[in-house]
Amino acid sequence: MRILIVGETYYPGTNGQAVFTIHLAEGLAQAGHQVMALVPADHFASSTEEINGVLVHKSPAVQLGLLHPGTYMTVTPGLFIREV
């Protein structure tokens, strides 16, 4: 089965959502599924890497600044999704 997981955080995040999403994605990949995760990058450039059997696409993003340090928001999600 091909599975797409979209979230606001992923590896190397250590918050609850990141940990849950990483465990879910890696568990599904280990079970033989093709898993892809779409998440914001921690900089304004896209990248793709495979982490423990999960293809992780990171979209260009900007930091939300003093309001939420360490939180990033994708700038043009529609363009990035079409690209992927």
Q: What do you see in this structure?
A:
There is one protein chain. This protein has helices at residues 16-30, 77-83, and strands spanning 2-6, 34-40, 47-51, 54-59, 61-63, 72-74. The chain contains 2 helices and 6 strands; from the N terminus they run E-H-E-E-E-E-E-H. The relative contact order is 0.19. The chain starts with a strand and ends with a helix.
Write the layout of secondary structure elements.
Elements: E1 2-6, H1 16-30, E2 34-40, E3 47-51, E4 54-59, E5 61-63, E6 72-74, H2 77-83
Parallel strand pairs: 1-2, 2-4
Antiparallel strand pairs: 3-4, 5-6
Approximate helicity band: 25-40%
Order of strands in the sheet with the most strands?
1-2-4-3
Shape call: globular
Structural class: alpha/beta
Topology, number of strands: 6
The tally of helices reads 2
Uncertain ranges: none
Which oligomerization state do the chains in this entry correspond to? single chain
- Strand proportion: 25-35%
Major sheet details: 4 strands, mixed
Order of helical and strand elements: EHEEEEEH
Evaluate the radius of gyration: 13 Å
Distance between the termini: 18 Å
Report the average pLDDT across residues.
85
